[in-house]
Amino acid sequence: MSRTVTLTHAPGPGSLYPKAVSAMLPVIGKPAKVSPDAVVPDTVYRLENVRVDAEKLGDYCRTTGTQFGDTLPLTYLFVLQFPLAMQLMVDPAFPFGAVGSVHFENRIERLRPIGVDEPLTVETHAENLREHRKGLLIDVISEFFVGRELVAVQVGTFLKQQRTSLSDSPRGPAPKSTTPPPPDRVASVDLGLIRQYAAASGDRNPIHMADLSAKAFGFSKAIAHGMWSAATAVANVEAQLPDAVVYTVRFGKPILLPAKVNLYTDKNEDGGFDVSILNRKKGYPHLTGTLTPRS
Fold first, then answer.
1. What total of structural domains would you count in the chain?
2. Which of 9, 73, 165, 195 is deepest in the core (most CB within 10 A)?
3. Is residue 39 a part of any domain in this protein?
4. Residue 12, Cα to own-chain centre: how many angstroms?
């Protein structure tokens, strides 16, 4: 039987990130290695009457290229649930830490367009802890309601890197560095833009905010948010999306800042689009995604 915790307000970065960082510290933090049969807490965090801040939405649209209008950009659903997802992941009962985890995949299922002025109820929980060749994966699932109507589901899959029983399984061939084809669009991104995105989205993970803090987590430079990439990749076709749509993305190598990246958009057989962001010089993917009409 799950336990629902209804919050009176959305937790802010000032309270969440100190907890996330302390979870990494020896002795008082979370274990360095997590068992694949670790208990996933059955807590559901709930936030009612969620209202969109028009100014922050405008900043989000400006930094990602998505449309500012009467309905929410598809990827803005990730932003609205992010405080609840963080609250879940900083809970001592959650098996691994929020900071240091890798956002591996993301899926957004929109059942209908959502008006900017519609009050939302958001419920967030975790499930499906499982092994992967690179470590352990877990799904953080957020459901969005207008009244009692389910209007969208957001699923973030996070990776805790460690050895598992699958670590020695055969790997596919390593991707070869090749010159990528001419892009449909080139996007430029630097630390200033990503800091603006961080302010608009509330995701102030240290790996995005400065080179020095990113190096503490194993990156040579600060990196762009994966969900900035997901929003930027879909911006060109946003107006062509059906009302009910599923957007799935897998994140590849991080975008080290500053950078210029190649964006590609192709129509697929399902009546939707395939999108990708590739490294301009070596052609490896930073993101691959699919937009599919929801049947």
1. 1
2. 73
3. yes
4. 17
